[in-house]
Hints:
The chain is an alpha/beta fold and 337 residues long. It has 11 helices and 13 strands.
Amino acid sequence: MLPMERATVALMLLVGLPLAAQAPKGWQKGKGWGWIWGPNDEVGALNAIAGPEHVLRALGEIKTGRVYDLGVRIDHRSFKWPGHAPLVMMTFRSPDGVRRQQDPPAFTASKRQVAFHSCALFTSDNLGTQIDSLGHIVTGEDNHWYNGFKEADFGGDFGLRKTDADTIPPIIARAVMVDVAGLKGVEALPANYPISPKDIEAALARQKTDIEPGDVVLIRTGTCRFWGETGADHAKLAQHDSAGITLETARWLVEQKAAVMIGSDTTGLEVGRDPAVPDAAIPVHVYLLVEQGVHIGELHNLEELARDKVWRFTYIAVTNRFKGATAGFALRPLAIR
Length: 337
């Protein structure tokens, strides 16, 4: 950034002018983002909010210091999308085993009776609160994903070699929560409810807020109301989990509102069956991840935000650094108001 640009940003922050009221770099109204960041890019639309000026803009949303934990608690019983493996957690080492088997020797030789616990995990990288990497979904006969990366070139036995979850940068962004369940006056939206742009606009009007360019958008269906301790009530959760946004809504959020990430409180964000594209599988995932480079957030618990009527906040998420993973999983994103 040039000195004059830095001075302009500082002045805007000082007097409270909306830094991102103008179109973000690279975004075009009616087109969105797309593959605009160079042939080797693995970050996508989040490039638009990189830099200290955007972090300061995001932190400007904090007024009270109240922190909301958006992560869900998980265990081996937790509800998940059927295409993903469950969590299997086993005690690998226990105090009783360490002492009985006298292994490791350093512990059994100790006169202070010291031992330890250690667990082994087998799990999907798409479990619990998560952010999909841009390589999560492939399309076409060549199995390509964002930015034209192909399975033949960058697939492998040990995970993705391009746009894996490790490439998702730390996210510190302004965010808006859109309470569609609250708009409809229901605990949770019914199965396969298609959330339209009109629903989003009506919810925003009810909340007296709006989506600004460069925002993270989180949409509440009410599904997480039934998560409970660890999401064990699969039947109840399944009744509502298929509610979500349509392809039209995804396009509107990206091409008209310049959202850099879109998430919800369900396992898949999008409606189970989009009436406008009945022959397409997961069209919203294909559009956002592959075509636009917009990350998807899933299973974000928005219940406390809805209870306290918190519509705008600072969103912070840092994904775990598993090289090759298709999503940052078992996360605890924060909303700070």
